[in-house]
Amino acid sequence: MSSPASPDDPRAFARRVLALVRQLYPDQPAALGADGETLRLGSARFGLGNLAAKFRLAGGGTPALRRLVKEHFDLLLRDAETLLGDISWGEAKPLLLPQLMPAAFLEQLPLAERPFAPGVRIGLVIDAPRGYRYARQDELAAWGVNLDRALTVALDNLTTRSQGLLVHAGTGADRVLMLASGDGYDAARVLLPRWRELAAEHLGLPFRFGVPNRDFLLCWSADSTASTQAAFRARIAQDFKRQPYPLSPLVLEMNEEGNVRPLA
């Protein structure tokens, strides 16, 4: 039987988190969202899927949930307080990074973005020492910078940040590249031209890949054995369901131009 805070019951989980948020942040006007599965703090709406995944991985229990709620909302509230103000292009430029995000994020704010794959968008984040948030469409307009220019800068920044990163490369009949550095940008690195060059050298083009969550990138050759293909499909589907920051359960394919398509 599920506990009252079970992450497998989104509404019950949201009610339990709401109770803890009201205890931990009594000055915040907290309430359930209209769907009963999200939380509202003032005018901001927060999904609880990532928190539920972390709670599941922690093994459950009230002390663990209280600790995770505090860590989670300390970060969210800090970012909301410190990074919602105006920032100039000169200030943002060295902090800008590309990020893959669920398309559902667009329901909350008019973010700067473009399509990547079904249910996934390419966004831009301002990643500062004092906080982290997505860049909005109105900010790009105020900067006088179009999305192509901003994305080019963000990709250059991530390329620089990725130097010396450890990549797992499997050889033999089933060639694979895997990235799980945990810095928050592993899935987004599939956007880098240098990653595409590495994949071409090691896997051939087009190659297949999955981005089940923000912190994992799995790529393999299109001519891998059927059993390997099935194993990777299963791993991607499982990680999408269980890990924090989920993106997509789909197997995707990228060609030499960087175009992405889902595979049945």
What does this structure look like?
It is a single chain. With 264 residues, the chain is of the alpha+beta class. The chain has three domains: 71 residues, no CATH class; 73 residues, no CATH class; 95 residues, no CATH class. It is 38% helix and 23% strand. The protein has a six-stranded antiparallel β-sheet, with helices on both faces. Strands 4, 5, 6 and 7 form a four-stranded antiparallel β-sheet that branches. A hairpin with a 5-residue loop joins strand 12 and strand 13. It is globular. The mean pLDDT is 88.
How are the secondary structure elements laid out?
Elements: H1 10-24, E1 30-32, E2 39-41, E3 44-46, H2 49-58, H3 62-83, H4 89-92, E4 96-102, E5 113-117, E6 120-128, E7 131-134, H5 137-143, H6 147-161, E8 168-170, E9 176-179, H7 193-202, E10 207-213, E11 216-221, H8 226-242, E12 252-254, E13 260-262
Antiparallel strand pairs: 1-2, 2-3, 4-6, 5-6, 6-7, 8-9, 9-11, 10-11, 10-12, 12-13
Low-confidence blocks of residues: none
H/E series, N to C? HEEEHHHEEEEHHEEHEEHEE
- How many distinct folded domains? 3
Q: What percentage of residues falls in helices of 4 or more residues?
A: 25-40%
Largest sheet: 6 strands, antiparallel
- Whole-number average pLDDT? 88
In whole angstroms, the N-to-C terminal distance is 35 Å
- Quaternary structure type: single chain
